[in-house]
Amino acid sequence: MKKKSLLVASIIALAGNAFAGGYLTNTNQSIYFLRNPARDAAIGIDGVYFNPAGAAFYNDGFHIQFNWQNAHQKRDAYASYPIPVLPSPLFKYNFGNPSPNEDGGREFTGRVDVPIQPSLFALYNTGDWSFQFGFGVIGGGGNCEFENGVGMFEALVGSKALTALGQKFGGYSLDSYVNGKQYYFGGTFAVARKLSEKLSVSLGLRGIYVTNNFKGHIKDMKFGMLTGRQENPIVVIDQNQNPALSDLELDCDQKGFGIAPIVGIDWKAADWVNIAAKFEFKTKLRVESEAHNNDAFNALAGTEPKFAGYLDGAKTPCDMPAIATIGAQFMPTEALRLNVGYHHYFDMDTKQWTKDMVGNTNEILFGAEYAFSEMFEVSAGFQKTMPDQTDLNLSDMAFSLSSYSYGLGVGVRLSPAVKLNVAYFRTVYDDYTKTDPEKYSVTTYSRTNYVIGAGIDISF
């Protein structure tokens, strides 16, 4: 069960979440969020996502918001395999690319680049009623590429060579590569109603369509066998000499769909205080694989549970966890807004993770906005994300880390009906070191991330 769960976590997070939020959830759905992530009790067009009940208190009429974000993330896994039977760590024996580091470790880097990440919100308010639509990349997003593969792949080949050659082991070499794309497209329809001038409620449904693609290879594998001869101490065994060194080719697409309700409430506790809460139910998602792997990879996946989800026809759980949010907005003056928020992700209630892998994720958020005039405003905010996980939930291809994020930006009203927003958002992650005595591995995971974006509000 642990191996299967780790496989699932690796598959669903290979491309990874390039944005703010939990393991899978992207909460940065608007440029307002980048400016100030504490949007849970704010009243605005992007309330379609953050505060659907409160959006009923927005101005009457038809309002639409377009958002464009550009995100970049770098993932580093520094791995070392100090195997007891070898005088030096395993990666020192890669005669094609030996580790240059004293501890025999090697850094494997994955990059996520999202040139354009769009989202759209539409809001029609009339009297006590609010009709809402939203579309965006709710989870995942982008393409993650490991140009030199990942540590677990190199260790697989090196260990295979060591097992095959025993005391005659003289090294190995390989060409390794992994690429993953993951998108969770979400469309939301909601209705909100003001029950009074101080209280509103909302009910919505969100459908999520998942599309993933994974490509990779391990090829040009060679083993080095010690000969005992001084003039020619190592003989290289290539694929032509050993059928066990067949190329491994991964090419797998995955598709899935799920739907879940969302409920919300907004309460104007005072003229200068607004409080809101929202609950997104768990979205049950099962992705089915359509694979075009080569025979050697399929044979490996038939014996290695960690690769079984990449086989043709395999079905993998990729649930979006339920989320509870609550927030408050304080307006001590007409020009100043202060925001706080709290998010709780029910990760333990999903099928892809087991309770010995994760607990539940929590986030706290703060922010402020100040309007210098009707035309110009500035804002900034802070978010702290605290996943609860064990070593079992981290692998070379999938790792989420504790982090804090900050964002800042401006809003400029170009006309009574048009407003421009621009922002910058950065996430700083804590490093995490995992030691696996069974595999003789020590890996330190680290990440960096930043997003820039622009958006426009239009009212009719």
Task: Give the helix proportion (percent range).
Answer: under 10%
CATH fold assignment: Porin
Query: Helices and strands: which structural class?
Result: mainly beta
Which radius of gyration do the C-alpha atoms yield? 25 Å
Contiguous uncertain segments of 5+ residues: 1-13
The CATH top-level class label: Mainly Beta
What features would you describe in this structure?
- The protein has a single domain, classed as Outer membrane protein transport protein (OMPP1/FadL/TodX) (Porin, Beta Barrel), CATH 2.40.160.60.
- A 14-stranded antiparallel barrel has the order 1-2-3-4-5-7-8-11-12-13-14-15-16-18.
- The protein is mainly beta.
- The chain has helices spanning about 1-15, 30-35, 45-50, 150-165, 295-305; strands spanning about 60-80, 105-125, 130-145, 170-195, 200-225, 235, 250-270, 275-280, 285-290, 315, 325-330, 335-345, 360-370, 375-385, 405-415, 420-430, 430-435, 440-460.
- The chain has five helices and 18 strands.
- It is elongated.
- About 45% of the residues are buried.
What's a concise summary of this model?
The protein is mainly beta and 460 residues long. The protein has 5 helices and 18 strands.
